[in-house]
Amino acid sequence: MSSATLSSALPPAAPDIQPARLTPAQYEQGFADVAPPLTHAQALLEAERCLYCHDAPCATACPTGIDVPSFIRRIADDNLRGAARAILDANPLGGTCARVCPTEVLCEQVCVRQTQQGQPVAIGRLQRHAVDAVMDRPISALFPPDVASGRRVAVVGAGPAGLACAVGLARRGHEVVLHDAQPKGGGLNEYGLATYKVADDFAQRELDWLLGIGRITLKTAWRLETSAQLQALRGDHDAVYLAVGLATTQGLGVPGESLAGVRDAVDFIAELRQTEDKSRLPIGRRVVVVGGGMTAVDAAVQSRLLGAESVHIVYRRGPATMGASRAEQDWARTNGVTIHHWLVPDAVLGGSGEAQGHVVGVRFARQALVGGRLQATGLFDTLAADMVFKAIGQRLDTRLLGDCGLTLKDGRIVADDDGRTGVAGLYAGGDCRLGGRDLTVEAVQDGKRAARAIHAQLAATDR
């Protein structure tokens, strides 16, 4: 870290925050699909690289247990319908996961081709190729639902876990009422991912396609706010699955955090996702993002794509412990983002004169790892900023959950791997469940397992 990037000097001028910093062509290019789909010929060639391993490590590494060699062999045989069915049977959100799953640290990391040649089979891109190919046909043609069971289940949260659970239950013949607090369903997929990862409104297209399975009623703008609401859901349904995510963002806990120009990164990403004309969004010339996960990277890169001249990610530990994968970190640097380590926010600094009440910079305390523990060095550095984004994690709003008999630990709901809580008929999964890895694909697996467990409970219960 050089003194050229960090200093104690702050700009005296008013904050420089403007929309339309770039040309229309630059916005279109910046927010286009980051990984264009494979052509038919490219997919066939890539599929032929697969060795179709027995006991394939790639399948073991997939949290949803997709039989990777099986679906790739079907692509090689030009059987895209069969490939898609194999994927979606294990992961109903296979389209989104193909776009956003960190395959470089999961299936592709353990690919035998990676070991032999340093170049894994492009599993994620092949998965996208197969799923995209069938989305112009009804999902019910792939998975005809079972005979109606006459049972009703409430799912709270229409993100990856909730959607996976709802689809799994509907396929088994149960009626599902899917509730979500936002105006649109999709949860993280709709509001929390970088636009260039799920371009062309893919999250809503996938949602609409999944709802085509039937027996799922989506109720949006419905927020769980009281224990009485939850009790009413339990009384009106045969089971309830909570997939409410982590809706409350963590604060920095330092002076100046309430200054104008300081925002939660998740709110910024959600606003960007819902804004069709990106040139309308104002962005600072100098942006600082505090955090080390994928949300921090998404906020930082998209700030650059909106026209910010300097963007810095600042993380309190070293690169090895960042939540963002190495590929995500490299992606940020490729897009002109500077990443700093071993710095913790000490104060958000406000300006004077025209900048009164507005952030003009952030002061950071340097840290070092001594004997395995972080310790302050007594040194400070300052970054100038027109805008500051907080991306240091989210937490569950637990105010009403304890009143419902749920056990909470470390700010999350205690439930087993199948989502069973200590309350009969009440299940929980996704980010709100203790023990999750906060990955889309992990949330899907939670929802899938919960659907199976709820179905087993309903089947064993006489009406």
Account of the 3D structure:
This protein has helices at residues 24-30, 40-47, 57-61, 68-76, 80-90, 94-100, 112-117, 123-134, 139-142, 160-171, 188-191, 202-211, 227-236, 265-274, 294-305, 326-334, 440-460, and strands at residues 17-18, 152-156, 175-179, 216-219, 239-242, 248-249, 262-264, 283-284, 286-290, 310-314, 337-340, 343-350, 359-370, 373-384, 387-390, 394-395, 408-409, 412-413, 426-428. With 463 residues, it is α/β, with parallel strands linked by helices. The chain has three domains: 40-137, Alpha-helical ferredoxin (Fumarate Reductase Iron-sulfur Protein, Chain B, domain 2, Orthogonal Bundle); 145-247 and 396-460, FAD/NAD(P)-binding domain (3-Layer(bba) Sandwich); 250-393, FAD/NAD(P)-binding domain, CATH 3.50.50. A five-stranded parallel sheet has the order 4-3-2-5-19, sandwiched between helices. Strands 7-15-9-10-11 form a five-stranded parallel sheet. Strands 12-13-14 form a three-stranded antiparallel sheet, with no helix packed on it. Strand 2 (152-156), helix 10 and strand 3 (175-179) form a beta-alpha-beta unit. Mean pLDDT is 94; it is low at 1-5.
